[in-house]
Amino acid sequence: MKKLLIAFGILLVLFIAAIIIIPIILKEPITKAVKEEANKNLNATIDFKDVSISLLRSFPDLYVGIEELSITGKDKFEGSTLVYLKTLVLDVDLMSAFNGAPVINQITLTDGLANILVLEDGTANYDIVPESEGGEAEAETSSDGAFSVQLKRFQIDGLKVMYNDQQGGMAFSSSRIDMTLSGDFSADQTALKTNILMKTVKVVNGGVTYFNGVELELKADVDADFANSSYALKDNEFRINGLHLSWNGNISMPNDEDINLDLTYGAAKTEFKEILSLVPAIYAKDFEDVKASGSLELSGMVKGTYNEKNIPAFTANVKVGNGQFKYPDLPKSVDDIQMDLSVANPGGSTDNTVIDLKQFKFQLAANPFEVRALVKTPVSDPNIDASFKGKIDLGSLADAIPMEEGDKLSGTIVADASLKGKQSDLDKKQYDKFDAKGDFTLSDIVYSTASVAVSVEIKSAQFKFAPQFLELTSFDAKAGKSDFKASGKITNYLGYALGDGTLEGNFNLNSTLIDGNELAGLSTTEGGTTEQPAEGGGGEAPA
Fold it and tell me: 448 and 410 in contact (C-beta within 8 Å)?
């Protein structure tokens, strides 16, 4: 019995030693082989700092950790980073690897960057797999073609994403993406659980910015049919800042070009504060403390096929009734907020979109402001019928919406103008067919901020609208010691605002003093020399 226990103890020690030593022995040849094979078979340069292989961290599974993994482009994308990951961790079922179908329990990506670029000629930096002689991307399988990889969980912790499609005119960026995705990815059908959080999201398509600095979150249960590329959404919640939407329906991809959509959505909550969160200036400042009331109705659908030549039909309807909000630390509120907006497209082209803002109005310190707008054929020939009328007391605005510390704002803006007509009539200089009239007046405007050395004062400024031009009938302003008086006209302002027209103008400017140093944010010492601001103090360039 004693000999048996000694033999068992020796075997146990050898087993533990093997678990510790074998990964150390295999580490260098595996690292070298992976680098050489990857760089040999890809149109990109693969590199990483270190590889950790362990049977102890996730026993009985195999732990594989890769540190500082980078993929950089070649040829047109020479030196450009496609992917960088601080760590890539794989948790592999060790026994399944010997059966030819390794089960990867989890893949985790941490603190990384994905930089996707498509050039105007359609060349993409993610197209790094060489094509075979038959024109298809090469893919290696086992000799019997039965090699497969099963994945149970995929996790991303802190991935920055930048996507720029120069050919399609679309761009997307997010400062951070966190995601968990779980399910049986080896099965033909499975239930997927998804949780995605995206911060500081910006989406631009066709020159139109749809999101700018918003926070998006998706919590979804999806019945996935991988065999037929069909996905049924159920019990889903999609959040845009503070607006919660519920989604239901189906998404299918019958081929490589088409995506079939049949979705409906609506506001999960019917409080005005939900949609108020979409206003960046309000959401950015202590939004949770804002006291708000009012009703919200929001619904819509997306139905049809999406591909390079076609978009599906879609609708979006938003109504706000008796909205009101107030910051607890500020003396005034914004009241009587009413909104009735519908956006509809029967499908086919974005040019079929009709935007109908029947009403948008609010009241700030007993000063009402109201806007309405109807826009058709927004791409080919913008046809607009809009008006805006009201008065804004900027001092009251600063009393209702928080400003940066040290910022001061006062004065009044009065607007009463209307626009009606097609851009094509402006292009043809048929001004009699385009109606533009009214004026826009600024009085006693004072603005100062801690980030700018001088304050700006506009004693008076008046713009008059006409189809041919926007006339500056008077302008009397000061910026620090400098003073300005001006008058003139801006021509083709509507063509510039509605399309790709060139903004032109002719102005008369008078001044008794222009202090260039002060305007440039420079300061003068007692000795008369000019000092530059400290390096790096100029702020961040706009994106």
Answer: no
